Every structure is written in C-alpha cells, then in structure tokens.
Amino acid sequence: MLGSHKQPLHYIPGRAIHHASLTYAGEAKTDARDAVVIADQARIRHDVNLMREPDEVTVELRLLSARREDLVHDRTRAVNRLRALMAHYFPSLQAAFNYATTRGPLVLLTKYQTPAAIRRIGERRLATWLKGQECRKSAVIAAAAVQAAHEQTAVVVGEAAAARLVSRFARDLLRIRDELAELEAEIDTALKGNSSAVPLMTVPGFGMRLAADFLAATGTDLMAFETPDRLASFAGLAPVPRDSGKISGNRHRPRRYDRRLLNACFQAAFIASRTCPA
After folding, report:
1. Are 92 and 123 in contact (CB under 8 A)?
2. Looking at the structure, do residues 208 and 235 belong to the same domain, yes or no?
3. How many domains does one find in the chain?
4. How far apart are the C-alpha atoms of 141 and 130, rounded to whole Å?
5. Are residues 141 and 163 in the same domain?
6. pTM check: above 0.85
7. Does residue 148 share a domain with residue 63?
C-alpha cells in the first residue's frame, strides 16, 4: 500500500532489530519499545536496504514459479505413493514405466490396474484403446503392460483396494501434468514480454524455468543491483571474510542470501557443465 503511494520502504531484518534492542536501556519487550528501536535504527543507519516496488512481470513470475514448484512437489509425492502401492501388488508393472514424465502409462492405470484386467483385454485391444486416448507409442505401452501382467498370476491380499487408489493417483497425476503445461505456457508468455529474459536465456544452462526463477528472485530490472558484486552477494555466491587479529583470508559461505536465486544459478551451472562444449 505504501509503495503504491510512492512512499519509500526500507527493510531491517528482525535479527538486526533484536541485537540493536540489546544496546538500549532496560529489558522490557513491548510493541512500543520495538517501534522506538525500529524508528531509531531507520533514522541513524544509512545501510538499510531500500525495498523496490516490483513490476507486473516480476509479481506474475513469482506467483507462477511458486505454484509450479508446489505442483512439482505434489507430482513427486503422488508418484512415490503410486509406486509404493504398485510395488505391493503389481511390482512388474511398477518397474515397467516412468510414471513421472510419461502420459501413456498413467492413462492405462486410470482403467486397468490389475494383472487380470490387463490379461483379459489383451495386447491388441489395449493398444487400440490407448490410441483412442491419444497416447503416444500405444503399441509399445500395451506390449509392455501385457508382458508384465503375464509375469504375475498370483492375487495379492488387498489388490482391489490398492487398484482403486492407484486409479485415483493416476488421475491426480494427469491433472497435475495438464496444469503444469498450462503454467509453463503462462511463464513462457510472461518471459517473452520482458527485455531481461532474452539475454538471460542465451546464457548456457538457463532455460525457461530457471530464467523465471532467476527473474522472480531478482526482479526484471537487474540494473538495480548497480554492480555484479552486489548481485553475487545477493545470490550467496560471494564468500564472506571472517578475519580477526592475525587470522586473515578466512572466508565462509554467507548466511543471508536468496536461496531460490542460488538454486537457479547452481542448476544452470550444473546443466552447462554437462551440455555446453566450452
């Protein structure tokens, strides 16, 4: 609200206020005392960070990136539970496919979850049904599923209940997959309308997702950092010296930095080290 009315906003970490309050007389802890300490620190300190009002693209990228991260965590959790259930009653089919990235096996599990059901429909009819559901490589998926079904003839206790849960998890994963595709399309649209995203995505290792995470953490105006050193410090890439007396050159990892930005930089460097020929 203050930013929308062009009022300058400064940020003082809570830890700094806590340590500063120890230098004031008395041990009381009240809202009035905290307000006095905060106001006094804002008045006498000249190194307090000025908060910038984010633009529309930055806010949009932050919201979309946060939602995408939540969905990725939900997908990982659902895949793990799906695999755990299938390992209980149908381990051969559990090991036959990658349920995290492939759509066809998930479509299969929405209707056929048990060895008996897959053997009953047969490979040819299963391939035809999968093709009607617009699944890629339907014949390959059907052949692998029927082969896995023929490898297991025993019926495990609790198979029916586990199969119903597997069907639900498969539908949840398909929904998450569709929502992730929509979010990535929105992120791509937001990046195309920003001038900082184009040169950033030419850096080896940076793609659409990492560029969105980078700009969501830094904002779209990188000139606000003034120097590359400040950007490196904000990302936690600049070592912090801890010298005392005769001890010098003692450098440590910083404690205060943006974790999401550091993660984006690390992943980009890791990808570039594996794919960039230079």
Report:
1. no
2. yes
3. 3
4. 8
5. yes
6. no
7. yes
CA 176 centroid distance within chain:
14
Q: Where does a domain end: 186, 217, 251?
A: 186
Q: Give the integer Cα–Cα distance in Å for 24 and 33.
A: 10
DSSP reduced 3-state for 200: helix
Q: Residue 11: how many CB atoms within 10 A of its CB?
A: 10
CA distances 270 to 208, 263, 267, Å, are 16, 10, 5
Task: Tell me the β-bridge partners of 10.
Answer: 50
| CB 100 within 8 Å of CB 81 | no
Instruction: Give the three-class secondary structure for 219.
Output: coil
> Largest Cα–Cα distance of the chain, in whole Å?
84
Confidence of residue 243 (pLDDT cuts 50, 70, 90): confident
In the chain, where does DSSP find H-type helix? 14-21, 31-44, 56-89, 91-94, 104-111, 115-121, 123-132, 138-150, 159-192, 197-200, 208-218, 228-234, 259-275
Task: Using the structure block, give the residue that is written with the tokens 């400064």.
Answer: 10
**73 and 94 both lie in a single domain:** yes
Do both 100 and 161 map to the same domain?
Answer: yes
Q: Are residues 180 and 127 in the same domain?
A: yes
Instruction: Give pLDDT tens digits for 9-33.
Output: 777 878 888 888 888 888 888 888 8
Q: Which domain holds residue 86?
A: 59-186
At 190-214, the pLDDT tens digits run: 888 777 888 888 888 888 889 898 8
Question: Distances from the Cα of 139 to the Cαs of 107, 112, 123, 143, in angstroms?
Answer: 14, 15, 8, 6
Among residues 155, 170, 186, the one where a domain terminates is: 186
Q: How confident is the model at residue 235 (pLDDT cuts 50, 70, 90)?
A: confident
Q: Are residues 156 and 212 in the same domain?
A: no
The number of residues in the chain equals 278
CA distance 192 to 248: 47
